Amino acid sequence: MPRLFRSKSIFVTIYGGILLVVLSVSLVAYFSLSYVNKHRAKTYTQEVATAMFHIAAVSIARQPEEMRDIWLSDASILVGAPMRLQPSLPFEPSGEDIARLNEGRAVVRRQRLNSFSDIWIRVPLPGKTLYLATQLEGFGEQQVRAAATFFLEDLAYYPGQEALRLQTLSPFIGFPMKLMPMFSAGLDSEQIRRLNQDEIIVRLTESAIAGRNQLTVFAPSQLREGELLVVGPVALFDRLPVGLMIMTSVIALLLITLGAYGVIHLFERRLAGLTKTVMKLQSGDLNARMTLDGEDEISRLGDTVNQMAGHIQRLLDVQRELTQAVSHELRTPLARLRFGMEMLAETEDIDDRYAQLDQLDEDVSQLNTLIDEILTYASLEQGSPQLNFEEVDIDELLARIERETKALNKPVKLRLEMDSGLVVDAVPRYLHRVIQNLVGNAMRYANKEVLLRFEVRQGTAFLTVEDDGPGIPEEDWKRVFEPFTRLDDSRTRSTGGYGLGLSIVNRIAYWFGGTIRVGRSVALGGASFIMRWPAKRVMV
Predict the structure, then answer these.
(1) Which sign, positive or negative, has the C-alpha torsion 274, 276, 282, 284?
(2) What are the pLDDT digits (tens) for 276-294?
(3) How far is CA 245 from CA 22, 35, 39, 212, 432, in A?
(4) Could you tell me the fold of the domain covering 313-385?
(5) Which of 230, 317, 505, 513 has the most CB atoms within 10 Å of its CB?
(6) ∠ CA 339-343-346, rounded to 5°
(7) What is the pLDDT of residue 464?
(8) Rounded to whole angstroms, how far apart are CA atoms 361 and 156?
């Protein structure tokens, strides 16, 4: 089965959602369009019906009662629809209907089963209620001709006041209507000839702005020769095309399909690459990495996988190094313990026994120190150690470091430089461990002096430890932070250590969100260690 139609395909999932949205929007648009068309048709019919039948109702009111049926018969032929008078409405009118009828406007009810509309308008007879009713399928050329005839008949009652009469009727007319000379109407000779024979001319045009068909009627005046009644242009009703909307929706759906497949297929290929990388990692190939191209969510996910793989690889390397180094480091004190126990068993001199016991106790202390260093380093190498940051008083912390250093009774002098009252965010025991390790390391190699400087600049805390010893060769600056690295290869108690102190400092700096670097001291000439981290934690 092609990938496109697989149920687990991202394309099917996402495009299915898009398709559902498009179909939902199309249905909503269809029903909304139908409602709008219905409302527009009703409004258009009411306005045009008012323009035509208001003047018809006025004309009926002028007729003697015995002549009304004859007038209605002739008017029905003109309009192309039966017109009748009735004393009441066949429905219960709403408040809006009553208001329209009282204003002399038409009320329209559209029939549900066909396209016909029932129209009613009140005949303005004093002291009597009478309604003019008709039924039309639509308004076209015949109805506009009939309207022109009705208006010409009405204007005949107002000789010399035609313009004033048209102004009076204008609130009921939804289109232009005016009297003008025949020669200025822009008609050709054939049309003028027909007008001179008392014919009504209808001209069909298309609006350049709205694109809708319009009718303009030219009717010869019955009062003045050479004068025309110009009705219109009257815009014909134009439904919003539902078929066009459906066709547009189908085309849009096809375009969305092609576009969505093209875009989603790219994501599928990149996700396939990510899956392949994860499968390699699962099989044990920790060197596998995903190629990153971009800054979107998939690229960020790939970067996270790459970082995870690198972290796993580093943890495994650390575990291997720890296993090898621990087994090596434990051999020397254990061998001394075994040798001391053998010597203790063989000697009978009481002073010698006590000397051997002191030596054994020192070896046990050395083992405890080594185990503590290993456990500390291992805890800092885990995925995310528990760090409880709090505000640390630097004055108090450095005073403690100074007391602990003096207790060693070494000839090297510790000099402190700092501003009083400094407070930074840190884990107190880990910050104490950093300063203790750096100062202890500097004391081990210094000749006369160790400088400890603490400062805060632009929200960053700086801890600097310098000494006047031989310093560290530049080619070893990166190696010095690797676990179990001792540059002098010494294993004696006086200078050796275990090679974990600076590794622990490096990991603490990392978990503090900072860095540590080694260099040469400008002031003292020996080694220089500078650790920096944010002085205030940003709570997320």
Answers:
(1) negative
(2) 888 888 887 878 887 777 6
(3) 13, 14, 18, 18, 74
(4) Helix Hairpins (1.10.287)
(5) 505
(6) 140
(7) 94
(8) 135
Q: What string of H, E and C letters represents the secondary structure of 25-77?
A: HHHHHHHHHHHHHHHHHHHHHHHHHHHHHHHHHHHHHHCCHHHHHHHHHHHHH
pLDDT tens-digit readout, 323-354: 665 665 566 667 777 777 777 777 777 777 77
Number of other CB atoms surrounding residue 463 within 10 Å: 26
Digit-coded pLDDT (tens) for 502-512: 877 888 888 88
The whole-angstrom separation of Cα 240 and Cα 414 is 91
**Hey, what amino acid is at 137?**
E
Q: What value does the mean pLDDT take over residues 240-261?
A: 68
The two tokens of residue 428 are 């107190």
Among positive and negative, which fits the CA dihedral 97, 100, 102, 107?
A: negative
Per-residue pLDDT, averaged over 256-267, amounts to 72
How big is the chain by its Cα radius of gyration, in Å?
51
pLDDT band of residue 424 (cuts 50, 70, 90) is very high
Alpha-carbon distances of 460 from 82, 146, 457, 515, rounded to whole Å: 94, 91, 5, 11
All structural domains of the chain with their residue ranges:
1-139+241-283, 313-385, 388-540
CATH 3.30.565.10 fits domain 388-540: yes
What are the beta bridge partners of residue 414? 450
